[in-house]
Specification:
two-stranded antiparallel sheet; alpha+beta; 11 strands; Beta-lactamase; about 280 residues
């Protein structure tokens, strides 16, 4: 998927040695957040109202594509609802009785039960969405990947694995463009479909802000762990879109601190504390 931001970023790279456009900030102050956790990563934040763009590690953000992992549940949900394979966010898929381990060895207790779509999304249940993908089927899923121009668009492995095994890949830039279109109902789905998915993406909501996102965790070809968080933060009914990804060794168990890292960066940018 060609992001709406790619052209702007290309212009930044071309002009960076001579001048820095007023609407783009390459924020080197964000480096320490990643250094303190011992990880390599990228972060981008876009203010839709002003067109201001803050980014850390622009090369990784624009040029490096990775498996979407569970961020693909956004697409899987949209296609599932649009095609009727998911009736609504309350649709239950029964647990198949298989107890699955996480990579670190703990059982996936929150998955081992009958789940609604909303529960499966928020708990990031892989089995639920594998079943959804099987019900959608390869040809239909491929049609929607092509229609969305989503990442590399490739389904070269089983229909219930291709977003998890490094065959399908997407850049952080493309992820941001995708969630921005979702927020404004600009994807080629019915409004109802997009509204349901936006609703289940909301993870926190209070008087100061609304935080909507989807996480993703996967294993890269080099054996390292990749973590994503993609979504938006809304303050005073004004959206700011963000994407973060990072990688570390399996021993670092980086999925345990990805949300902490995201919130630290957002607070440094003036969010989550009612100041906007």
């Amino acid at each position: 998927m060609r992001s709406i931001f790619s052209g702007m970023i290309l212009a930044v790279l071309a002009l960076f040695s001579a001048c820095s456009p007023n609407n783009v900030k390459i924020d080197k102050d964000l480096q320490h957040f990643f250094d303190e956790k011992g990880v390599v990563g990228t972060f981008g934040l876009y203010d839709n109202g002003t067109g201001q763009f803050v980014i850390h590690n622009i090369a990784r953000f624009r040029d490096s594509a990775y498996l979407p992992a569970s961020t693909f549940k956004i697409v899987n949900s949209l296609v599932g609802i649009e095609t009727g394979r998911i009736v609504n966010e309350k649709m239950i898929i029964k647990w198949d009785g298989i107890v699955r381990p996480f990579p670190m060895g703990d059982s996936t207790k929150s998955w081992n039960k009958d789940l609604t779509m909303e529960e499966a999304f928020k708990r990031s249940s892989v089995p639920y969405y594998q079943e959804v993908a099987r019900r959608i089927g390869k040809d239909t899923m491929q049609f929607w990947l092509d229609s969305l121009k989503y990442g590399s668009r490739k389904i070269v492995s089983p229909i219930d694995r291709f977003w998890l095994d490094n065959s399908l890949k997407i850049t952080a830039d493309e992820e941001m463009g995708f969630v921005k279109k979702l927020y404004f109902n600009q994807l080629p789905f019915q409004k109802r479909t997009q509204d349901i998915v936006k609703k289940v993406m909301v993870q926190e909501e209070n008087a100061n802000y609304k935080l909507a996102y989807k996480t993703g965790t996967g294993t890269l070809e080099n054996g390292k762990t990749l973590c994503w968080i993609v979504g938006w933060v809304e303050e005073n009914r004004h959206p700011y879109f963000f994407v973060m990804n990072m990688e570390g060794t399996p021993a670092q168990n980086i999925m345990n601190f990805r949300l902490e890292l995201l919130k630290s960066i957002l607070k440094q940018q003036g969010f989550l504390e009612g100041k906007r």
